[in-house]
From TrEMBL:
This is Anaphase-promoting complex subunit 10. SMART domains: APC10. GO terms for cellular component: anaphase-promoting complex. It comes from Haemonchus contortus. One of its GO terms (biological process) is anaphase-promoting complex-dependent catabolic process. SUPFAM superfamilies: Galactose-binding domain-like (SSF49785). The keyword Cytoplasm does not apply.
């Protein structure tokens, strides 16, 4: 798979100014982007000590950070309760302060579970400072990917460093899901789709006619 190299985007020291790093080629139907980070359960492969774990990784201040404490690859695993539309992962990295702790190569995996992950998207960084955007959308349509699990693996650090610092991570999705399953209506369970949108009347008439034909 082709490896991406990210450009640095320098921003203020907080965890909610990620919109400044968004690309311009976002489908209008997906705007505004939503921060869906807190819909998920987060785990890390290791952490140095109390005060350098998940709480710091998700803290609004990017002066705080997660520090790993173990062999590479270091991993951050983000698990959603259901299949979720995902557009971007945003990472705040700071080579100036973290030097050899700064990731130089990561691999981002998506999947339906921890045992069903894809081959992953390799991403490389060159002395990054600021928000780094990892685009997980379809390369052909720019539409969101759908997954229950996002796993970020840090496979190399700058200067061959052992442990890693990541100062912030955000997972972003579209304003609303594109996925509306009419088959759920056949099953009588439209409520099982959280963002179910009632189709237009013309579509409902077609649906009713198809149900009568099946009967």
């Amino acid at each position: 798979m082709e490896t991406e190299e990210q450009d640095s985007r320098v921003t203020a020291l907080n965890g909610y100014d990620w919109p400044v790093a968004l690309p311009k080629n976002i489908n209008e139907a997906d705007l505004p982007m939503r921060d869906i980070s807190f819909q998920a359960v987060w785990t890390v492969s290791s952490c140095k000590s109390e005060g350098n774990g998940i709480h710091e990784l998700l803290h609004d201040s990017v002066e705080k950070y997660w520090q790993s404490d173990g062999p590479q690859p270091h991993t951050v695993t983000i698990e959603f309760p259901r299949k979720t539309d995902i557009c971007f992962v945003m990472m705040y990295l700071d080579f100036k302060n973290d030097e050899s702790y700064t990731p130089s190569k990561i691999i981002v995996h998506l999947g339906s579970s921890l045992v069903h992950l894809d081959d992953g998207l390799p991403v490389e960084f060159n002395e990054p400072t600021g928000w780094q955007l990892i685009d997980l959308r379809s390369r052909r349509t720019n539409r969101p990917s759908r997954a229950m699990v996002v796993q970020i693996q840090v496979v190399h650090n700058h200067q061959n460093g052992r442990d890693t610092h990541i100062r912030h991570i955000r997972v972003l999705g579209p304003s609303r899901s594109r996925f509306v399953s009419h088959s759920r209506l056949h099953a009588g369970r439209p409520g099982s789709v959280d963002d179910f949108v009632l189709p237009p009347v013309s579509d409902l008439n077609k649906l009713i006619n198809s149900c009568m034909a099946i009967r």
